[in-house]
Description:
Blueprint: H1 6-31, H2 39-48, H3 50-64, H4 72-89, H5 94-118, H6 123-142, H7 156-163, E1 165-166, E2 169-170, H8 171-189, H9 191-201, H10 203-208, H11 213-239, H12 251-261, H13 272-291, H14 298-322
Antiparallel strand pairs: 1-2
Helix pairs in contact: 1-13, 3-8, 3-9, 3-11, 3-12, 3-13, 4-5, 4-6, 4-11, 5-6, 5-11, 7-11, 8-9, 9-11, 12-13, 12-14, 13-14
Amino acid sequence: MTRWSPRGHHLVGSYGLPALTALLFLVFSVVLPDTFPTRDNVSSILSNQSIPALLALGVTIPIATGKFDLSIGYGLGLAHVLVMYLIVDGSAPWPLACLAVIVGGALVGALNGVIVEFARIDSLIATLGTGSIMYALTGWLTDGSRIVPGPDGLPAAFTSLYDARFLGLPVPAFYVLAAVVVLWVVLERLPLGRYFYVVGSNPRAAAIIGIPTRRYSVYAFAGSGLVVGIAGVLLAAQQQIGNPSVGLDYLLPAFVGALLGSTTVKPGRANAIGTLVAVSVLAVGLAGIGQLGAQFWATPLFNGCTLLLAVGLAGYAARRRLRSPAPQPPAHP
């Protein structure tokens, strides 16, 4: 029986998911030649998946440190409602409202990190608790009803954050691309990202060599909160109403994208490009089965099955990575 070489395993792990994305697109293009491989469909996929992609990138940051942020769905709901509240009810200039929500998202994320690290509460429990508080704040802010703009609607410059196009493509796609580039630079080229990985792989060893693990964990959660704030602004510009029930639907796809992304490009660790590839697989798959006439329950079924697969593959990739020599962290200043 022929055994795969280590190089073969590496190639499949690194490039299998991008190849699957291309294969899925090709299959759906053959099956649905009149609707799937069209510019309008590609634009629709890029636009509709921009917010899940941003959230998946946000989730990727704490995952790099071995933590999980379950508050992102609740945070997204609060952020987009708060933007609408400040613009519609508070009559605040939309740039100021957006900036306040983004900065607030980073602060809430930092608070999550402080609770996890200094209160010594597991990240799953801590962020679930803070997320529930955010959900309560969303209900209090809206009194359980939607925030609807007046007859004049929202400022056109604000709604164009989502509706505008650049080079023939939806602008949100470029936000995602910019976020991927920034996160790739942070994780792969800056000491900050390397500290994240060291803390995530072995926090005790990181502390022994002098890395302040608590501080970098707080940084990771703050980065996640910052991305959630940006996604909340984009969601408000998309929906143009403040809906208190929106947010939780984005939680599962975000984690699927982040966890599945950790199995590709750089298998065994969360990485920005891998997350983008994973989101692409989900986007193409969901768009294809949607156009084939799948029932409404097909989407949560697809996401749930993919999440289980992603967790299993992520664990396998992490175990394989532990068997390999670990890279040395940079000297801490």
